[in-house]
Amino acid sequence: MTENSNTDKSRRQFLGSAAVAAGMAVAPGVILHQTASAKPADEAISSKVRWGMLIDTAKCANGCDACVSACDEEHNLGGGRSETDAQWIRKVELRDKQTGHSLTMPLLCQHCEFPPCVDVCPTGASFRREDGIVLVDKHICIGCRYCMMACPYKARSFIHEDLHDQKPYSPRGKGTVESCTFCVHRVDRDETPACVEACDAEGHNAMIFGDMNNPDSEISRQLASYSSSQIRGDLGLNTGVRYRGI
What we know:
Strand order of the largest sheet: 10-3-11
Number of helices: 7
Mean pLDDT: 84
Oligomer: single chain
Structural class: alpha+beta
CATH topology: Alpha-Beta Plaits
């Protein structure tokens, strides 16, 4: 086994299963809290699975921010609950200049198959799990923010402030970069991301999450039956988030 593959395996184990020692220093000024094990250490993450999300903009209600609020609460990101204004998912408005037609939709990390953030990261902190989820290893993130500049979707945030009351399953750290994780702690427990759960609870059902490699999954059936789009599909990144109606 090569040194690089050992490093990749270690990162996957850290974010997918291994517990982080409480109060461990990651970098100057960075403290991560202990995170609970989400998956047994001997259970491998496989490329046979490709986690993805389909968002139907016609069902995304104007003025509804249930997905944003759920994400904020799940990870304690802001909204008056902490010192940072980070947003891992945000609602944006698209308007057709010719017709005046407008719509709103959630925008988050697109979990690309070929993520530019991973390409430019000098330490390997930004990486893509074999199941398609793009993550940041806070232990080796040096806060250079190259990934923020490389991301075409402005989906990453930098933490400037000290953090308090962190969630044990979602460690964060001052001086590091972060973005949507598809609620990997939930995914590894065979649960739905918080944003999808909140959208369903509101009765909008605008977000479908599942295995894009499984032809029997709901997301695969929907993608096979109806047209969908990738944001900046011209970049050839093969995003894990697809949209209908844009």
